[in-house]
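Quick start: read one record
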Amino acid sequence: MRWFGTAVAGGLGLVFGGPLGALFGAALGRGVDRGWSAKGGERLTLEQRSRIQQRFFEAGFRVMGHVAKADGRVSKAEIAYAESVMTRMGLGAPQRQSAIALFGAGKAPEFALAPEIAALHEVAAGQGPMLHLLLEVALSMAYVDGPPSRAQRAALETIRRGLEVSNGAYRRIELLVSLQRRVRDVGGDSSAGPGAAPRRELPLSRAYAVLGLRARASDAEVKRAYRRLMSQHHPDKLVSQGVSEAQIRAASQKTQEIRRAYETITRARG
């Protein structure tokens, strides 16, 4: 399961967070692969990491299935979203079949959400970023068709309590997810699936200006500038600092502009 750390966590960061979660997800993945510290400060063993990674994989897809079905039906958009997660994670055929089965298990009437969350929390105690990411997974699925329903809200609260995430941290994570959804709805997102509005192209000169580059910059310079700016303006950093909603919203808009600029330049260069 060593592939899980970078591939899955980085993939989830992109899927659930869009431009807001990409760097967070990649950093999380690298942290998993290197081995986080356990709650008492000792370094996790390979067996402990594998157990956490396997449990997160299982819980993630079951939770997505449960949240999608919480309001009585699973929409085509929710199915497409789950499939996009599998695609962006780069799952092979056996892993994809496993993910599909887990998603289906989460939809089943007999699925018990609270014990699932308790089991994850027990094995991943002390791994705050991973537990927060699981909550982001659930929130992102709940927002696929718009604001969460009452039943979805109840499921989300069960998850929050089971993971022992504070109300304040939960609100900040939800703010990020709702902002990401708003950006996709208003500006369009090529990754949002069929029917999404086309994203407005930035003028090429504006794209270079956003990244602080001249048109003659090399491809490597373009990539370095993009990564540096995304790191500087990343809203996930602000969430951990407990800043205001206005600051998080501004950071969200900035990272969206940086991402659009980078995509414009890379498309122009072929």
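The radius of gyration is 19 Å.
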